[in-house]
Amino acid sequence: MKNILLQFDFKQTSDEDSVVFTDPLYMITANKLDEVEFCMEQIERAVQDGYYVAGYFSYEVAYSFYDVDIKHQNESMPLLSFGVFSSPTSIPRSEIFGEYHVTNWNMKVTKDDYEKSFQRVMEAIENGVTKQVNYTVPFEASFTGNSYQYYQDLKNAQQSLYSAYLRFEDMDILSVSPELFFHYKEDTIKVRPMKGTVKRGKTFEEDQQHYTYLRSSEKDRYENKLITTLMTKELEQVAEKDSIHVTEAFTVEKYPTVYQMTSTIVGKVSDSITVTELFKRLFPCGSISGTPKKATLQLIANVEPYPRHVYCGAIGYFSPNNEAIFNVPIRTVVIDQQNGIATYGAGGAITGKSTVEGEYEEVHTKTSVLTYREPPFELIETIGLQDGKWLYLNEHKERLQDSATYFDFALSLDKLDTILQQYEEKYPTGLFRLRCLFHPNGNITHEIFPLKATNNAKVVLASSNIDSNNPFLFHKTTNRSFYEAFQQDDYFDTLLWNEHGEITEFTIGNVVIEVDGEKFTPPVTSGLLNGTFRRGLVRDGIVKEKVLFKEDITSADAIWFINSVREWIKVELVINN
């Protein structure tokens, strides 16, 4: 038990510290359903005796609370596992650093089997058995190395409010869940069901469209309302009916890879309800089962071919200070350290309004956290200063504001204006290039250079493609390693192309070609930065957007490199065999 580490990064407020437990006095563990009730009694007794009790409940624990016929039990890990502790402690220093390797994630259910299960669920909905079913599938990968470092990377990628790292003797649980199951403190309970998902857009404009879509989506609001109604009724079993009310409805929250819709319900818990009784009345969370709950649990047991384990269960702790808090372990990786196998569950709510294509896409959207990595970066604006006047300043500010909103950067345009005024006064003549870095906390660092003439205007095609799904292509940031990999000392710049063979941009500017007197530039959707000079040319009709391929470039009458500092530079494409 010396290796056990349970860390709860539940951030109800921005300055809330992690709660950490190590070296339990003893463990409370259930491996079979008929052991669950006794373990619940042990948990209640330990809390009443003044101890903290921390750990997890697997989803399959629900089968001990409901009369459900099951075809498989949770055999590879305990149904529940809790440590009993005198008090929280601090994070061991040995957990901070480490390396790891994880292979590609593979869905354990074929698309054909997924579609068959979807049809079974839709038939149950049509027959009135259920209104909504949260159907899930597992993913699997091989894992070696330091799971704590992997947890930190996942947490940085997801930026969730209810993350937790649980290390047991031969199993690690890495949960970066955005969803609160319940928070009970003194006599008040809060639940926060999450239902409704859409992936983030790559550009600011596309991102706003996705946000607006989710806010007004009839399907997602219907799903959310069903679960909010279910959980409100469940709260009536443990809380005073008149005290229960929805404080927030259909709130859309932003995460690095998705938007999620949540609602919040609060109530005053009845004096006669113990904390473990409260848990039993609410578990499992309605958002990951469906409604009506019992019939839906039975349907899930019939349709899903694998146990969920801790995924969709509950992770958290009971405090002797009349408090308990648990997440819903979505966005959660479980690592079997003995076999080096990592598993991850993903799913979505199926209702009568669902389509198999939409649900299948949502499942894969929810796996993006597994591979998405956002390194530390700053926003960049490079602005030309010509004879004391800034070039395309409004366009630079507009792009900067869009990216700051997209990435949640603090931004003060007044602070930028002060910097610009200083340089205007210092350099009233000549041509200069100002480079500003905008930090997440609102700080701005800056430097200015005289603009040198371009002697070599030869360019070359990239030897391999860029990935047009990379969101950093659409924002000007210091995360430029994917550009720098293509730059060559012998050439002015390199012309890039995407996975579909479409021309995109240069590494430090946009591209325009001329054909029969007309000028064309690739559309932003091909995967490129909408440069400030480019957007003005397109807006004014000087240049038209058109999907371009390599043969369009090689047969063009002329090729230009453009940006807001140098504007037009005619370039020569060198073909390397």
From TrEMBL:
A GO BP entry is:
L-tryptophan biosynthetic process
The chain positions of domain Chorismate-utilising enzyme C-terminal read: 111-366
Q: What is the scientific name of the source organism?
A: Candidatus Pseudogracilibacillus intestinigallinarum
- What's one Pfam family here? Chorismate_bind
The GO terms describing molecular function are: 4-amino-4-deoxychorismate synthase activity
Q: What is this protein called?
A: Chorismate-binding protein
Q: Which InterPro entries match?
A: ADC_synthase, Aminotrans_IV, Aminotransferase-like, Anth_synth_I-like, BCAT-like_C, BCAT-like_N, Chorismate_C
